[in-house]
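Need residues for this backbone.
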């Protein structure tokens, strides 16, 4: 689903990001649809790539000029990303030239945000395993033009909602989807709906 969202924007980001890589460098690719677009742009280039998702591994793995490494262990079903223990172990064995990292949100004040503890640990390890880090961000911003910002208790870049669903001052209003889908999956969306 997310691969179809903002396809042109992700492709443009991927073209710029791929231009930051020199031939024969080692790279780390985080999971996510924008990193798949980066992998597509890098196809055909002589590289060594640690791919933390099977989606990027498949793109680069069909290229004989690219050496692809994937962590062992279980995969997360929603994203086909390596589980945290396997990814962290693999990141501890590599020193890459460039790491491409995704995040659910990024802000100058709060830094990177992700939806799970394990994903935060993986991203922290990526930062330490690479000489250069490139954040792949589409620039989405939260906005609800049909509700005054004061009603949703905005602080900074996002509203403060109880359990990420309930505005504290607005009885009967529920906000769905305030949690990144790749982090909670369809089961999480279902539980959010059941809560309401």
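Answer:
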């Amino acid at each position: 689903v997310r691969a179809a969202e903002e396809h042109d924007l992700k492709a443009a980001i991927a073209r710029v990001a791929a231009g930051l890589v020199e031939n024969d460098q080692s790279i780390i690719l985080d999971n996510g649809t924008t990193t798949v677009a980066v992998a597509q742009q890098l196809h055909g280039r002589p590289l060594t790539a640690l791919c933390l998702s099977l989606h990027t591994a498949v793109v680069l793995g069909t290229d004989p000029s690219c050496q692809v490494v994937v962590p062992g262990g279980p995969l997360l079903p929603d994203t086909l990303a390596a589980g945290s223990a396997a990814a962290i172990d693999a990141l501890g064995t590599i020193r890459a030239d460039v790491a491409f990292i995704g995040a659910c949100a990024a802000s100058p004040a709060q830094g990177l945000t992700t939806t799970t503890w394990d994903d935060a640990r993986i991203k922290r390890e990526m930062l330490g395993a690479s000489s250069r880090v490139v954040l792949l961000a589409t620039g989405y911003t939260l906005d609800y033009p049909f509700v005054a910002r004061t009603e949703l208790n905005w602080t900074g870049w996002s509203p403060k909602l109880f359990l990420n669903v309930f505005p504290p001052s607005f009885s009967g209003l529920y906000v769905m989807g305030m949690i990144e889908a790749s982090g909670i999956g369809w089961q999480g969306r279902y539980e959010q709906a059941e809560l309401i």
